Amino acid sequence: MNSLEKIQQENKLGKLNEYLKEIVYGGNDGIVTTFAVVAGFSGANVSQNDALSLSFLTVLLFGFANLFSDALSMALGNYLSIRAQRDVYKEIKIKESGKIQNIPEKEELETVTLLKSEGFSEEDANTLTQIYKKNPNYWLNWMMNNEYEMVDTTNINPAYTALATFLAFITFGAIPLIPFILLKENTDVAFSYSILGVVVALVMLGLLKWKVIKTGLVRSVLEILVIGGTAASVAYLVGLAFQGV
């Protein structure tokens, strides 16, 4: 293994790192989406209405319908978003490459300006620009990062990111519904366990975030708990607002 391969191997991100954003966002949205159905029904106290009885079947029907439809919608949205970002990046990169080849003087001035804005002196900025010119590919990538502030997404597989989103959404989103499967004869108790399940799921998501990116444990868990808990509480309050309507 040569030096470059060794560096790449040492700094290679694991699969969890690569798809952490999809797992966290997908998992959090899945939890909130399904609990919103459960909390909405409970908050509205629909068990007092015979036509809208809060039966386990009602919760499971709406819960799983929302779970799978929203998971698919979010995954497809993620897929299309990545595809669009890749297309835009490629288009702009082609245009920038043409500028470097056809009007290099203009690109040199832009490079010097950008370097000076980063704190380099006029002399150092000009020296670095001349160095960049010797490696057009590096210069092009540098301009994409610094002039357009665009991240290269061409190496991201949109199908994998969509799949990671979908699986995270389904896995974490099913947790609030599990009590209604196991305790189908007592929906009040099931709802209490569903709340506990939401807290546990959010903590698991926070621990996963902490484990992967190595930020503070308390901060990682609290961020997920506060964001997810707030969204879940809003769903319950909305249902409560419709009580008796």
Describe the protein.
The structure is a single chain. The protein is mainly α and 245 residues long. The chain has helices at 3-10, 15-18, 20-44, 56-102, 104-117, 122-133, 136-146, 158-173, 178-182, 187-213, 217-241. Helix 5 crosses helix 6 (122-133) and helix 10 runs antiparallel to helix 11. It is elongated, with a radius of gyration of 25 Å.
Brief sketch in words of this structure:
The protein is mainly α and 245 residues long. The protein is built from 11 helices and no strands. It holds the Pfam family VIT1.
Chart the SSEs and their pairings.
Layout: H1 3-10, H2 15-18, H3 20-44, H4 56-102, H5 104-117, H6 122-133, H7 136-146, H8 158-173, H9 178-182, H10 187-213, H11 217-241
Helix pairs in contact: 3-4, 3-8, 3-10, 3-11, 4-5, 4-7, 4-8, 5-6, 10-11
Keywords: Membrane, Transmembrane, Transmembrane helix
GO molecular function: manganese ion transmembrane transporter activity
Organism: Candidatus Dojkabacteria bacterium
Low-pLDDT runs of 5+ residues are: 7-11, 49-53
Helix count, DSSP H or I runs of 4 or more residues: 11
For the report, how would you describe the main beta sheet? none
Helix content: over 70%
The number of distinct β-strands equals: 0
Q: Please identify the structural class as seen in this structure.
A: mainly alpha
The H/E string reads: HHHHHHHHHHH
Kindly estimate the percentage of residues that lie in beta strands according to DSSP.
under 5%
Alpha-carbon distance between the two ends: 70 Å
Rounded average pLDDT: 83
What is the CA-atom radius of gyration, in angstroms?
A: 25 Å
Shape: elongated
